[in-house]
Every structure is written in C-alpha cells, then in structure tokens.
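Service request form, structural biology core

Requester: graduate student, group of Dr. S.
Request type: structure prediction, single chain
Budget code: on file
Notes: please return the result as structure tokens.

Sequence provided:
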Amino acid sequence: MTEAPEYTMAQRLGAEALGTFWLVFGGCGTAIFAATAIPVDAQMAVGVGWLGVALAFGLTVLTGAYAFGPVSGGHFNPAVSVGLAVAKRFAWRDLPGYVAAQVVGATLAGAVLLIIARGIEGGFDPVETGFATNGYGDRSPMGYSLASVALIEVVLTAVFLFVILGTTAKRAAVGFAGLSIGLALTLIHLISIPVSNTSVNPARSLGVAWFAGGDAMMQVWVFILAPVVGAAIAGFSHDFLLGRDRDPVA
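Core staff response, request fulfilled:
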C-alpha cells in the first residue's frame, strides 16, 4: 500500500477507483443484503450479522490490496492517502487525484448497490433502512454520542495507519502487508460497528450517504474529518515512535 510510480497516473487512479468500488460494494453490500435474518418461505434465513460484515470489509481490502495494490499502492481510502502523505510515504501532489478516484469508485458502488436493492419485491427505501451509512445519536447502531463516535473513528483510523505504515516498511516481512491490513480492518469493524457502523474511510461513508437522505448527509462530516485526523496523527508520529525506515517521497 505504497506508491507505484512505474505505472501511469491514469492506471493508478483507475486501480484506486476499482479497489474502492470493491471495498464499498463488498463491505456495504454485505451489510445491506446479508447482515440480518430474512424470512424465506415461512422459515428464517440466517444473516451473517456484524461478524460477517466485519469479515467482508477485511476481505475486500485483502483481495483488493493484492489485485490492485501493485498498480496504485492500494489505498482505497482518502484517510490512508493523507496519512501516507503526512508520513512522507506518498507524494502530496498525487493526493487530489487519489481522493477523487476513491470517492468516484465508492459512489459508483453505492449507486450499483441501490439499483440492485430496489429490485426486491415490495421495494427498498435507502432512507428508512439506513443503507449501511455511518452515524451518531439515533443513527448509531447502539445510540452512541457524537463524542464517542468521533473518538473511536480517530483512534481506530490512527491504529489502521500504524498497521499500514508498519507492514509496508522495508523491515517488514515481504508479501504479508495485504493480509495484515485486511485482518486489521476486520478487527476495526468488530470493535466499532455497534458504535458508528464503522467508517475509518471518508470515501466509504460518502459512497452510500449520497443515497440515504438528508440526515445521513448532515452527519457524514464526522466520517470525513475524524478519519483524516486519526490518519494524520499516525503519519506525524509513526517515525518518532517506531523509527524511520525509508527515504521520504518528494
């Protein structure tokens, strides 16, 4: 999950858009379609629950990192791009393009999910169901406050960046970064789905919030700001706490 300059910028941005599409489609799609039990022919089909959603997000990042990471570095998350830039692992000049590609990929995934969801018998309302959006207060799965949601998003995004920076360092074991990062995201979701429905990724939050009504959009600012703050904290402090490992990117 670092910069891959041997590819053209168009290829790198395409890989970021595809990877972010896959993350939102796989993770949010699992939350929308498979998380809860659904009655089928007078029987109750078993949903995957929060554990299944957590695994889905981890698996999308794991598979995306190996599929698209060699091209773009496999950020799939504006907060990750910011954190890597702060840590001097990624060029600031490339940040706007990466963020735009990530938001576009996430939004396309949200749009495709909505089209599929509306095909169910009886219809589908993304506002009423929440459409896998993040939230606080009455939009938090367990009713957590804005302060609790903001704090957990900052802390967990910072930890996520520490894992990314550590597993992509020269001193790290070669070839295991995608596995470690995917498992870290799974654990992050296990911790925070009850609190915020887990963002740690502004693109993931925006990708579904666009379609879930005004209340979702009014709260999405937290899931843009808090992950970026957490990522920046990790980017600033990583070398001080754990030592510099590689030459900075210009």
